[in-house]
Amino acid sequence: MVKEAYYLKVRTDVLDAIPQEVTSILSVGCAGGETELVLKRRGKIVYGIEKEPAFRLKLESVLDRVIIADLDHDTLDLPQNFFDCILLADVLEHVQHPEALLRTLLGSLKPDKYCIVSIPNVRHVSIAKNLLLGKWDYAAAGIMDNTHLRFFTLASAKKIFSALPLKLTAIRRKFIVFPYENARYQWQKRLYFWLNTLFSSKANPLLYLPWIREFFVYQYLFVLKKQ
C-alpha cells in the first residue's frame, strides 16, 4: 500500500549530504521522485529504483532511467562502476537482507565514491519507554512503521557497514524528543516542533553526552565511501 506522506516530500537532509562533485546518482526507493526532481534540476544524471508500479509514469517523466523492482526478490540490472553516489533514504529497514542488498548495489558504484544511507533509530527514547512498559506496537508511520522488517541502532548499522567495502566518513543525527506521528492535532504538531527545535539546540548539554544523546536520535544519516 502506498503511503502518500512518505512519497510527497523532498528529503533536504539527504540533498545536503550529497557532495558537490557528484554527477551520477542511483536513488533506491525513490518513491514519487520529489527529491530526485531537485537533483535533476541541478543537472545530475539520476537513475531510480522503486517497488510501486503506480509511480512508473511519474518517475519516467523525471529520471534518466526507472527500474521497477522488488529489492528482496528481483534481480537488479545495473551498470557496473557507473554511479558517483547511491542514495538509500529509509530503505534498509524495509528489506529482508540489508547487507546483501548493499553488496549488490555497491557493484554499480565507482571506487572511492559515495553511499548515503538514512536509518531510523530503534534505541530512541520513545521505543525504550514502551519496552519498559512491555509494549512493542507497530504503527502506521515512524520508527515502528508496520512495513519495517529490520530495526537498527547505531552499533548494528555500523556492523553491517563494516562487513562491506565501505568507509564511514560522517554521521548526521536527527534529534527528536516528541515524534510527530504521535501528534493527533495540529496544535500538538506545532508544540512538538518547537520543543524538538529547542532540544536540538547546540546549547543543550545532553547532546554532548554520548550515552544519553543516542536515546534522542530519531534518525541517523550515514555518509560512506566505497573502498
3D structure, described in words:
By secondary structure, this protein is an alpha/beta fold. The chain has one domain: 3-Layer(aba) Sandwich (Rossmann fold). The protein has helices at 4-7, 12-17, 34-41, 56-60, 98-106, 125-132, 154-162, 186-199, 210-213, and strands at residues 24-28, 45-50, 65-68, 83-89, 109-120, 166-175, 217-226. Strand 2 (45-50), helix 4 and strand 3 form a beta-alpha-beta unit. The chain is globular, with a radius of gyration of 18 Å.
> Structural class of the helices, strands and pairings?
alpha/beta
Number of strands: 7
| General shape | globular
**Please, how many domains?**
1
Draw up the topology in text.
Layout: H1 4-7, H2 12-17, E1 24-28, H3 34-41, E2 45-50, H4 56-60, E3 65-68, E4 83-89, H5 98-106, E5 109-120, H6 125-132, H7 154-162, E6 166-175, H8 186-199, H9 210-213, E7 217-226
Parallel strand pairs: 1-2, 1-4, 2-3, 4-5
Antiparallel strand pairs: 5-7, 6-7
